[in-house]
Write a structure and sequence with these properties.
Layout: E1 6-11, H1 17-28, E2 34-37, E3 40-45, H2 47-56, E4 64-71, H3 75-83, E5 96-103, H4 111-130, E6 135-136, E7 143-149, E8 153-159, H5 181-190, E9 202-205, H6 212-222, H7 243-259, E10 267-271, H8 274-286, E11 293-297, E12 314-318, H9 331-338, H10 342-356, E13 361-366, H11 371-375, E14 381-387, E15 390-398
Parallel strand pairs: 5-6, 5-7, 9-10, 9-12, 10-11, 12-13
Antiparallel strand pairs: 1-3, 1-4, 2-3, 4-8, 7-8, 13-15, 14-15
Helix pairs in contact: 2-7, 3-4, 5-6, 9-10
Length: about 400
């Protein structure tokens, strides 16, 4: 008897869809098939696939199960669509739920009323089936129901993740506007950095903030699954409550724990703010990778390249502060905001790299499409990525030792 298959949707940041498809194939096997969609990927998978994706995906924001899809014109159509779902197969009347709504070009005037109609339908189905209805919990629901509306189609999802997957379970200390873990992982994936001597080599983040890029990199270098230190909604949802599925989940976690190993390459990180270095150190300890990251304080424009083992390549990955995102202290902030040195910081950074980082590869995330000309460097790649609502590019620079040209 074959395990039932779910229609899955894994949302991700804009620009990450193809990377996420590759990751899903690596997690589930080369026979995995799906489709790229705007803002995510769609595929089919059984309960084991749902659990493995939650545990192992660094790029997905959630793992959603599609439970209904159809055309609509008004709120009554949404109610009828939600009435088709056997909600009792997901939760009991003693459990809690919440309805979230996203929309693109929907003609409905009130998304809150749309959510209310889905809530009414779920409660009516449960009351007719069990004689009572579950309660709404807007903060910590067991089941998060997600309604997505386009101009004329509605899709209902059951969220199997609970907290979004960028919440790995280790971040407590954070600075202003921290980079989401999923975007840090996307930067590493786009760079082809896989934490091995032949795939990226050593890694350095010289503007590490609270340590997100370095911690993601160290976990990759140590073979640590991103979801190993957190819980998921599916662990309490009915489709995953059977003894066979629970045994599969225990086995997936056992395999993940046994896969952890010493770091295959060194990971370095530094920040001009010693407070951020302290935050990064504490976060790394909670993430289980304090031993795998060499952390320092220091200005990005002054710290020399770390001494690498012979024959090992070096990769710089950084998300420098920029105006829409943050202003920090130190020379970075002076060059961005405080004294109008915006045109000076990046040329100085490029000159520093040419003096100290010859032979390294640098990847820089920035919303400035003219960054290469400001750095007086020619990029070898530019990858579109979205940092929340901010459209960015991940620029690759192959650093050649020497002096900057005079302009």
């Amino acid at each position: 008897m074959h395990a039932p298959l779910f229609d899955l949707f894994l949302p991700c940041a804009g620009g990450v869809e193809a990377l996420l498809a590759d990751e899903a194939m690596a997690i589930l096997g080369p026979g995995t098939s799906g489709t790229l969609e705007r803002g995510g990927i769609a595929l089919r998978g059984d309960a084991r696939a749902v659990m493995a994706l939650n545990l192992e995906s660094r790029l997905a924001q959630r793992v959603l199960v599609r439970v209904a899809h159809g055309r609509y014109r008004g709120e009554d159509d949404l109610y009828a669509l939600a009435r088709q779902v056997p909600w009792q197969a997901w939760i009991s009347p003693r459990d809690t739920f919440k309805v979230d709504v996203t929309a693109q070009r929907s003609p409905l005037r009130s998304l809150n009323f749309a959510a209310l109609r889905i809530k009414d339908a779920l409660c009516d189905v449960m009351r007719e089936e069990a004689g009572e209805r579950p309660d709404v919990d807007t903060r910590h629901p067991l089941l998060r129901v997600m309604l997505h509306l386009t101009e004329d189609h509605a899709t209902l999802y059951a969220d199997t993740s609970g907290e979004p997957l960028f919440k790995r379970g280790w971040r407590e200390d954070k600075g202003e506007a921290p980079l989401k873990e999923t975007l840090a992982a996307a930067m590493l994936a786009a760079a082809g950095w896989k934490g091995r001597p032949d795939q990226g080599g050593a890694l350095l983040d010289p503007c590490c903030g609270s340590g997100t890029i370095a911690i993601e990199a160290a976990q990759i270098a140590c073979g640590i699954a991103p979801g190993l230190r957190r819980a998921f909604a599916f662990e309490r949802l009915a489709p995953f409550a059977g003894p066979q599925v629970r045994a599969q989940w225990a086995e997936l976690k056992r395999q993940a724990r046994e896969r952890v190993h010493a770091p295959a390459v060194p990971v370095y990180a530094s920040d001009v703010a010693f407070r951020m270095v302290d935050f990064a150190r504490r976060n790394a300890e909670r993430a289980g990778v304090a031993h795998a990251i060499e952390l320092h304080g220091g200005d990005v424009l002054q710290r020399p390249a770390p001494a690498l083992p012979p024959g090992l390549h070096g990769t710089l990955v950084m998300n420098p502060p920029y105006g829409e995102r943050i202003a920090v202290r130190g020379s970075v902030a002076r060059s961005v905001d405080e004294t109008g040195m915006a045109d000076d910081f990046f040329p100085r950074l490029a000159a520093h790299w040419k003096r100290h980082f010859g032979g390294w590869t640098a990847w820089v995330l920035s919303p400035d499409m003219k960054l290469p000309s400001r750095m007086r460097l020619k990029e070898s790649r530019r990858v579109p990525l979205w940092n929340g609502p901010i459209e960015c590019r991940l620029f690759r620079f192959d650093i050649v030792a020497g002096r900057m040209r005079d302009d």
